[in-house]
Design a protein that fits this description.
The complex is a heterodimer of chains A (356) and B (558). Chain A has 356 residues and is of the alpha+beta class. Chain A is built from 8 helices and 12 strands. In chain A, α2 runs antiparallel to α3. In chain B, α3 runs antiparallel to α5, α3 packs across α10 and α6 packs antiparallel against α13. The interface between A and B is large, with 120 and 145 residues.
């Protein structure tokens, strides 16, 4: 029954095909004769196996004791060193392992060495019988007939309509899982507040940065002034506002039209949130002036307005326009002029409204 | 199961106390019927059948250790200042979730051990499901009547990954927070509804103050409940179908050969639970996993180099890395009708995983459509005896592995001191040609192994004994196989391609032509099993001392 061969010529010349249409097959010789184990024939071996099993169960008891001793004898408290915790963890683990492996290997050894290991054959029964199938079909037919659903289409159709609509509230109740996005993603904390420009401050302590502190080749992780004073949604704001600040030789920057005054004396600030999926672009390669995202290796070229030169990101990092205030501190002259971070469906719409 | 004795039946009186208790239960729930059905039920035994068991036992261990962790974990994202016994983080601002995870690690005796057990068991859970599925695939165990159980198993794989990911994010440490950040970026790339889904999941902007609590509920209630339900379905179907068995003498589609459930099989399987538990305990004792105290609390600004997701999410992360955002001047992110479509994120996140899972779910039906094989199969295929299926499986596996390796592209670059960009270029190339090479190689290897089987079945096995014949010729003695070993090598089917056949109207449909084409592709390279006539011919051909000597050596060696 398994032979699908139809006698058509075989197309492959590369493979041995002898016996392709052979009807004759080897006869199944049946289950191989049972081989006795040592423990089946030699009472001494059986006794030995019995002792081995008992020793393994005994090892389990020892493991349980190790666990209890490690749990009660080692106390954790203020100032516990990592070494103590490691020691306790190792002892608890070894204790549990002995306790479990002792039981497990003991039982398996017992089964393999001492329990009868005769392989037996059992017949498979069909999953369903033809009689059952016929009876089931008849029952279903009767049920359908008694409901009269085929004769009363009005009932059927209204029921279908009702059932189709009924889950809608179940979806609607999830509507308050979160607020509507609106334009939250279009703005960051860098927007000047009441005409006051935000200073660039160090992450995480929030001290402002003087332009003179930024030497050529150095890089700063930057958060906006006032971020640390926020109580609500501090991380939300930080997730959009973090910036990398670097100083390059002004001659190596190639600002495009309209962005000439976004840097100060070779100091540039770019969003630290990758335009791919939002990891912090935390690696600055000082020699090549590349920024690298450690999550997916998107690489941005600082000398070319952070254009993507490698990796999965498709968009340059947004630049933060900066200047220096009267006291010599770096400030942002405005918010980013495009949404930061990973792209989203409404992004282009937001960008256009920011720019206009 | 109508084992309950009737009122008029002579009352059975148990002689021992245990007997009385058993009888009490039996008379009320009919246990003896169940025992009669299952007590001696035969289960085939093979080492490769234990991967499913590993998965099941890992899940039990996850439930046990996870329950312990819930007693101490607090999924709140409220801000707090750490006041536990781990000095380097003293007074650091963090979420309550992270702080309570640190407390579990440092201030609760056995807490660190439980965390480690839980994490290792989770990694093992997904891994054992994966290996179990590979075993099922390569041996053809998914064929009728087990297609639906294959689907249930595939759902379990997805649920296991979901359970893993929701749990991974709970401690709210820097590493898992960056993982969530990536998920957020992927969600936002979904057209039309992506931004809304992101805001609904996080309760507003990322990271918000809601997501840990929500993931916690999914992790400890919804996902495990679904897993439990699927496991019940899975095992129920195993009982209905009875287990498959490897081919061999005495085994056919009409029987099941193995050990009875009680006592041998139950003892081995039950004992194995303790072994799995013991091995996980050993790993937890000696191998640190997810040392959250080294990462610090989540903060959107810092990130450490060489960050990795848990292994089972790796293939999606790798696909994200492989996709170029820009090719030449072509940007994969562009604007359509004023809206942003960011294919450089959307495609790698959805397409490879989508293809893998779709083919996985549908494979039983794809194969039976091509081969027109609608019979029931209870005897497994040795992977070499289904060369095309094996090659498809290996190709898919290699594809997965390329993406998985890409998730560690930076580590490959730093470990082997090669350029990161080169690693990525190579992996991009392998993404496309890797599966093709794997398909060809796997198929050739399978066919070669089949030919080797033929050779051994017909000419016996090499003994390594070199004999010099009287006339000076050297030969290696071949020992013929006994009939049981031989049957294992010859007892398989080798179907030929099925040409297109006209339907009832005498028309060969286009679909039927495609099927015939695929059938040819599936079966045209094949090796037929050796037949008795060939064996006869081989013996006639070898009518010289070699075979006799072989038989002699065999009788000596045993």
């Amino acid at each position: 029954m398994g032979n699908h061969s139809d006698g058509s010529p075989n197309h492959s010349g590369t493979v041995a095909t002898a016996g392709q249409n052979e009807v004759e097959k080897f006869q199944d010789p049946g289950i191989p004769p049972h081989r006795l184990r040592l423990a089946d024939t030699d009472p001494k071996a059986a006794k030995r196996a019995e002792r081995q099993v008992a020793i393994l169960f005994g090892a389990s008891v020892v493991g349980t004791l190790i666990f209890l001793v490690a749990y009660f004898a080692i106390d954790l408290g203020d100032g516990t060193s990592i070494a103590t915790i490691r020691l306790q963890n190792a002892l608890l683990g070894v204790g549990t392992a002995f306790a479990m492996l002792g039981i497990g290997t003991g039982i398996v050894h017992w089964a393999k060495a001492l329990m009868p290991d005769h392989e037996v054959s059992e017949e498979r029964h069909p999953i369903r019988t033809e009689e059952d199938r016929l009876a089931a079909v008849r029952i279903v037919d009767d049920i359908v007939e008694e409901t009269g659903i085929k004769r009363r289409p009005l009932i059927r159709n209204t029921l279908l309509g009702a059932v189709a609509l009924a889950p809608l509230p179940a979806i609607a109740v999830f509507g308050d899982l979160g607020p509507r996005p609106d334009r939250a993603l279009a703005h960051t904390m860098w927007a000047p507040q009441e005409g006051k420009l935000k200073r660039l401050t160090r992450d995480p302590d929030g001290t402002p940065i003087k332009a003179s502190d930024v030497t050529i080749g150095s890089a700063f992780h930057v958060i906006p002034e006032g971020l640390n004073e926020l109580h609500e949604g501090k991380l939300n704001e930080k997730a959009k506002a973090v910036v990398l600040l670097m100083r390059l030789d002004p001659a190596s920057l190639n600002p495009s039209e309209g962005r000439e005054d976004w840097s100060y004396n070779g100091i540039v600030a770019y969003s630290k949130i990758c335009t791919h999926v939002g990891c912090p672009v935390a690696l600055y390669e000082q020699q090549t002036h590349h920024l690298l995202c450690p999550c997916h290796q998107s690489t941005f070229d600082l000398t070319n307005e952070c254009k993507v030169i490698f990796g999965p990101a498709s968009r340059p990092l947004p630049q933060l326009p900066i200047a220096v205030d009267a006291e010599g501190y770096l400030v942002a002259t405005s918010d980013f002029n495009e949404p930061v971070g990973p792209s989203y469906w409404e992004r282009d719409e937001h960008e256009r409204s920011i720019k206009s | 199961m109508s084992a309950a004795s009737r009122a008029e039946a002579p009352a059975f009186v148990a002689k021992t106390k245990a007997g009385r208790i058993t009888d009490f239960v039996d008379a009320r729930v009919g246990g003896s019927g169940i025992l009669r059905e299952f007590g001696r039920k035969v289960f085939p035994d093979h080492w490769s059948f234990m991967f499913g068991e590993v998965a099941l036992y890992s899940f039990v261990i996850l439930l046990l250790s996870g329950t312990f962790l819930t007693f101490f974990f607090d999924p709140s994202m409220a801000e707090t200042h750490y006041d536990g016994s781990y000095l380097p983080l003293k007074n650091v601002e963090m979420s309550v979730a992270y702080s309570s995870s640190l407390d579990i690690s440092f201030d609760i005796r056995g807490g660190l051990f439980m965390r480690q057990v839980h994490h290792w068991a989770a990694l093992l859970f997904v891994a054992s499901i994966g290996v179990h599925m590979l075993r099922v695939f390569f041996t053809g165990a998914f064929r009728k009547p087990r297609e639906m159980n294959w689907v249930v198993g595939s759902v379990l794989l997805i649920l296991a990954m979901a359970a893993g990911f929701t749990g991974y994010s709970l401690p709210d440490d820097l590493l898992s927070g960056n993982g969530l950040r990536i998920i957020d970026g992927v969600i936002k790339s979904i057209p039309v509804v992506g931004t809304y889904i992101s805001f609904f999941l996080f309760g507003g902007e990322f990271p918000g103050a809601a997501v840990i609590g929500r993931l916690y509920m999914l992790h400890i209630l919804l996902v495990p409940a679904l897993i439990l339900l699927m496991i019940v379905l899975h095992l129920f179907m195993v009982v209905v179908h009875k287990h498959t068995q490897y081919p061999g003498p005495g085994r056919n589609d009409g029987n099941v050969v193995g050990y009875p459930l009680g006592p041998v099989y139950a003892a081995k399987a039950g004992g194995f639970f303790f072994i799995v538990f013991g091995v996980i305990a050993l790993m937890a004792a000696f191998f640190t996993i997810n040392p959250i105290w080294n990462y610090g609390p989540y903060d959107p600004s810092p990130v450490s180099a060489g960050t990795q997701p848990d292994w089972y999410i790796g293939f999606v992360d790798g696909a994200l890395r492989l996709m170029p955002g820009v090719i030449g001047d072509f940007h994969f992110e562009y604007v359509v009708f004023g809206y942003t479509l960011t294919l450089n994120v959307l495609l790698p996140a959805l397409v490879p995983a989508g293809i893998l899972f779709t083919v996985m779910f549908m494979y039983p039906w794809i194969e039976s459509w091509i081969t027109k094989d609608t019979r029931e199969h209870h005897v497994l295929d040795r992977p070499r005896n289904a060369p095309t299926r094996t090659a498809i499986g290996v190709a898919g596996f290699v594809w997965y592995c390329v993406m998985w390796a890409a998730a560690g592209s930076d580590l490959i670059a730093t470990h082997f001191h090669v350029s990161l960009n080169d690693v990525t270029y190579w992996l991009r190339a392998l993404f496309f040609i890797g599966p093709v090479i794997a398909f060809v190689v796997a198929k050739r290897v399978a066919l070669a192994l089949q030919r080797k089987d033929r050779e051994i079945a017909l000419h016996g096995r090499e003994t390594g004994r070199i004999v010099r014949l009287p006339h000076g010729e050297f030969i290696e003695v071949h020992a013929p196989l006994d009939e049981y070993k031989r049957y294992k090598l010859v007892g398989f089917e080798s179907p030929a391609p099925l040409p297109a056949v006209p339907n009832d109207h005498g028309i060969v449909t286009r679909k039927e032509k495609q099927r015939a084409f695929l059938s040819k592709w599936f079966f045209e390279d094949r090796v037929a099993p050796a037949s008795p006539a060939e064996l006869e011919a081989a013996h006639g051909h070898h009518a010289h001392p070699a075979v006799e000597a072989g038989e002699e050596s065999k009788s000596l060696s045993h």
